[in-house]
Every structure is written in structure tokens, then in C-alpha cells.
């Protein structure tokens, strides 16, 4: 069980979704970046990972799925889309932050979406009643320290043959980037003009460096606590059908709090897409030549029915 003081800190950090991009947008806000990620995961720039997952499911059984679990749901966008798009009938969504649960409940209510039951829950000591046809983790499990316990619960609550969809950060624990990664990030930042490296909080994003693991933990005790172990522990408990890395080790950091500069509709800068295309090309090249690892991955795993 997470220490109550840590829960209070996590609630403070994640309880207000509007604060998450107060200093600027993140890379995934940009359609071109999402298309790049899609290419690496699904092979099709216009097909996102969730759509790809449901195509896989539909080869075995008709949709919608009946009852699913969403871990660390945050503001609730994923479960609202699952219901609204007719992909599932019922969702149980959990998050350790009571504040963000309240935000998610209000958003579902305002959208007129029913079929979602929200509850506070700690992934380190998850207490949910199955069965579930699928479990969804989107940027969730890297906040869990007790991976063995969590994956044991996932296996227990899944129906035989049930699915886990995982889309998560699986890079270095506590964001302890390698020296080579830091070097490449700074090289990419140097390609950008001054106007594109200032965030909305007034800081200049040149001279990027990692901060100590203790600083990361002080900001959020759950942040990337055992991220490097996620895929290994998952494979110990479930049958992994497919796992595809999609980078994120460079652009996720280069564009952090700066991505708004590359959307001309927002920034008014027509050169934004050209610079973004250069960054994407460089990132793809470094990834293809093995000079940077994948810090993010999508996996589909199963509760083996035999």
C-alpha cells in the first residue's frame, strides 16, 4: 500500500488535469507525432493503437466487449471514448487520486456517458472484483512499484483468454536517461530557433539534462518507480502476443512543454511543421540505426485459457 503521505503528494501532482500542460503542450498533442507513433505500433499512420487492439479482438469475438477495467484513469478520456465509440458496454475505472476521479466523473456526466463506475484505488494493492474481458493501462503501470502484485491481480480478474492492453513508458527508472540520450536531445534542441525553445512558464529549454532520481521521487513518489521492469514482469504473469516499441526517447523530451510552437493554428508560425518534420526524421533515423532505445511500448497480452 502506498504511504498516505505519498498519496497526498500524488493527488496534488495529478489531481488537476488543467495543470498538466500549464507550461506548454506535450508531444502527443501533435497529430504528426501521433502518426509517427502509430507507424511504429500499427504499421499505419492513421490507425492508432487502441483501434489496432480492437481489430485484433474482433478476429476472435464480436464487439463490444462486456466489462473492462481501466487502470490509473486520470481525467477519464480513454473510458469515455471506449463507451462512446461502442467498443465496450461497461467500465470500472480506478485512480489513486480522488481529485482526478472527481474530474473524470464530472466529464462523463457532462458528456451524458453512462456505463462507467469510478473508484479510488491503489495499483500497489489493487482490490477489484472481476471478471473483466479486458484491462487497459495507458500511461498507468509505470506509476506502480508492486508490479508482481498488480499483474497477479490482472491475471486473476481477467476471464480466461481475456486481454491486457498496455501503452506505457518502459524507459529508465526515475527518468535516469543515458548520457547518449541526453546528448541527442540537446543536438535536436540546437536545431530549433530561439522562439521555439521557450515554454509558457518563461523557461528556455536549452541545455537539457536529467535530474536526480531523488528529485523525481520528491515531485511524484510514484513516477517511473520500476518502469524498466514492466515488460519483464508482465511476461511472467501473462502470455504476451505482441509488444512494439515506438520511441518517445527523444521527441517526448525535446517537445515537452514546447509542442504548441509546432502547431501553426496555435502559434501562428508557418515554419512549425517544417521543423517538426526534421525532428521526426532525425528521431526515426536514430531509432532505426540503434542509437536510441524505445522508452515507450504498446503490448497486447492474454490470460492464457489453457
TrEMBL record:
Lineage: Bacteria, Pseudomonadati, Pseudomonadota, Alphaproteobacteria, Rhodospirillales
Transmembrane segments: none
Protein's name in the database: Class I SAM-dependent methyltransferase
GO biological process, one term: methylation
Keyword tags: Methyltransferase, Plasmid, S-adenosyl-L-methionine, Transferase
Molecular-function GO terms, alphabetical: S-adenosylmethionine-dependent methyltransferase activity
Top-rank taxon, per record: Bacteria
Phosphoprotein recorded as keyword: no
Residue span, Methyltransferase type domain: 71-166
